[in-house]
Amino acid sequence: MRKFLLVILVGASACAARSSQPTMPIHYACDGTAVTRDGVEMRSAASPGEVSRLSWRDDKGEHFVTWPLSPTDRAATEYIVPNDPRQDAIQQTYDTTFGSSTADWRLTDKTVCTARGGYNDVLARYMRGESIDDLTRDVGLTSRDETRAVLRKALVSLQKKYWGDL
User: Fold this and answer.
1) Non-local CB neighbours of 73 within 8 Å, separated by 6+ positions
2) Would you state the pLDDT for residue 65?
3) With the CA atoms of 126, 131, 134 and 136 taken in that order, what torsion angle do they form, in degrees rounded to the nearest 10?
4) pLDDT tens for residues 99-130?
5) 47: Cβ–Cβ under 8 A, 6 or more apart, which residues?
6) Domain spans of the chain?
7) C-beta of residue 87 within 8 angstroms of C-beta of residue 151
8) Which neighbouring-strand residues pair with 91?
9) Cα–Cα distance measured from residue 27 to residue 38, given in angstroms and rounded to the nearest whole number
10) CA angle, 13 then 59 then 153, to 5°
11) Which pLDDT belongs to residue 68?
12) Contact 115/26 with Cβ under 8 angstroms?
């Protein structure tokens, strides 16, 4: 009976619900502009009053959109945030003069937003000469082992891309 209860307890804890939204803000750098994801909103330091809200999810990740507020608005911004919080996000800017439907929008700019403490951020800092201890402290990772795991995943991903392009 005790073994049965132990199995039930372990199974229940493995199936426990987890939050679908990150509980801590995630910070990105998009062409030198700070962007912060806080729950279901993205806020850019370049335009503090403008908020992109979670609009939909798909296999690319979560899409945060700043919709045109009036017919005179000529632009919309979309952030595509992957499900892995250590991956970089994409910022896309659209020209909305051709209509209010997303099918009518024309892409005018696309920018990669580097996730603070993410794979590319840690790899770039390491390549510039920062130590594992400095990275652990500066990007908010919990241990040297976690930092090494992030760095290893970034290096393996880079190698796969490199060898795939040859």
Assistant:
1) 96
2) 92
3) 70
4) 777 788 899 999 999 999 999 999 999 999 99
5) none
6) 26-115, 119-165
7) no
8) 79, 111
9) 9
10) 70
11) 79
12) yes
Residues 49-67: what's their mean pLDDT? 91
Residue 19 pLDDT > 50, yes or no? no
Show the tokens assigned to 66: 């700043």
Among 54, 55, 32, 56, residue whose Cα is nearest residue 44? 32
- CB burial of residue 21 (10 Å; 0-12, 13-18, 19+): exposed
Rounded Cα distance, 47 and 45, in Å: 5
Please enumerate, as own/partner, the contacts of 149-154 that have beta carbons within 8 Å and a separation of 24 or more. 150/86, 150/117, 150/118, 150/119, 150/122, 151/122, 151/123, 151/126, 153/86, 153/119, 154/119, 154/120, 154/122, 154/123
Strands (E), 45-82: 47-58, 61-66, 75-81
Confidence category of residue 20, pLDDT binned at 50, 70, 90 = very low
